[in-house]
Write a structure and sequence with these properties.
Mean pLDDT: 88
Pfam families: DUF6089
Number of helices: 6
Helix content: 10-25%
Protein name: DUF6089 domain-containing protein
Low-confidence stretches: 1-6
Radius of gyration: 24 Å
CATH architecture: Beta Barrel
CATH class: Mainly Beta
Number of strands: 10
Organism: Spirosoma arboris
Oligomer: single chain
Keywords: Signal
Order of helices and strands: HEHEEHHEEEEEEHHE
Number of domains: 1
Length: 312
């Protein structure tokens, strides 16, 4: 499968190379590079709304690791195929433990998750400082913009309640549990563990040596799912859920211990403003995530990756 995808990407790159040749860009020598990088990742959704973005950035940053193949078609335009493994996390307790009465309903809800995403993306790159005719004539520094599309596999999980000995519980996959009644009569279908995202980013690239580049990038992903965190709709009727495990993970308001951290919530719960019994677990609206990444890139000599010449 990976070989097939690589062949498809190479075919697309070569077709774009051909278009560049036909437009008279033959003076520019197309070249390719491979990169490896890593950085931080941040989640925005029901458990970390956009108005709480600072909490996500400061309290629960997670990581990402990835590799990429980039083909420079013209002095300013490139195409990039990338595969990135991303961890996201959110926790009502962590985001609100210091001031539970600022968002009392969220603190009381007491949901949390982590999600390891596998993202396969195809992006276009526009760089502000053009390349020279040859790869060794590229600019020492250039800012750039990216826009693309990504296929994302995900699987949200949460911890079991804290064990009797005080140890933290195991992580359990949430989608099969139907925590909002998914799959039962009168409820929505189970959500997909495969979704599409739109990556948009800005970056900076530096030339280190004739064969190496260093890049720093900040990118935003809009996804087409509201279930990166397993939270979107209403609390279901407990009697409609298939088993006790589903009930446990559906409604965690009564748990005195925050399952992800093991902290005691009892004192904070006793000081909460009166919170009406909520019927909603979450709010409509898709989830997002943000990545920062530092990567190093090796330039492949043009003679190694060379597209065929297209003649009219």
């Amino acid at each position: 499968m990976k070989l097939l995808l690589a062949m498809v990407y190479m075919a697309l790159f070569c077709l774009i190379d051909a278009q560049a040749q036909r437009r008279g860009n033959s003076q520019f020598i197309p070249f390719s590079e491979v990169g490896l990088g890593g950085g931080s990742s941040f989640y925005l959704g029901e458990l970390s709304p956009p108005n709480q973005a600072f909490q996500s950035f400061s309290l629960l940053p997670r990581w990402n690791l990835g590799g990429s193949f980039t083909r420079h078609f013209s002095p300013r335009f490139s195409g990039r195929a990338s595969f990135t493994v991303i961890r996201l996390a959110g926790d009502d307790y962590t985001f609100n433990k210091d001031e539970p009465n600022v968002h009392p309903a969220q603190f009381q809800r007491n949901l949390h998750f982590r999600n390891d995403l596998k993202e396969l993306a195809l992006s276009g790159i526009y760089q502000f400082n053009p390349e020279g005719r040859r790869p060794n004539q590229r600019p020492a520094f250039t800012p750039y913009l990216t826009l693309g599309v990504a296929l994302v596999a995900h699987n949200p999980k949460a911890r079991m309640p804290v064990n009797a000995d005080g140890s933290l519980g195991d992580w359990v996959a949430l989608q099969p549990l139907g925590t909002e009644g998914q799959g039962k009569p009168g409820y929505a279908k189970p959500y997909s563990l495969l979704t599409v995202a739109i990556p948009v980013g800005v970056g900076m690239r530096w030339q280190l040596t004739e064969s190496l580049n260093l890049a720093a990038e900040l990118s935003f992903r809009y996804t087409f799912t509201d279930y990166l965190d397993d939270v979107s709709g209403f609390y279901p009727n407990p009697g409609d859920l298939p088993n006790g495990l589903s009930t446990t993970f559906s409604d965690r308001r009564a748990e005195p211990i925050a399952a992800r951290t093991g902290d005691d919530r009892t004192k904070a719960l006793s000081t909460l403003y009166t919170v009406p019994s909520e019927v909603r677990r979450g709010l409509p609206g898709n989830d997002y995530y943000i990545l920062t990444q530092i990567s190093i890139h090796y330039l492949i000599p043009p003679s190694v990756v060379k597209c065929p010449t297209f003649r009219r």
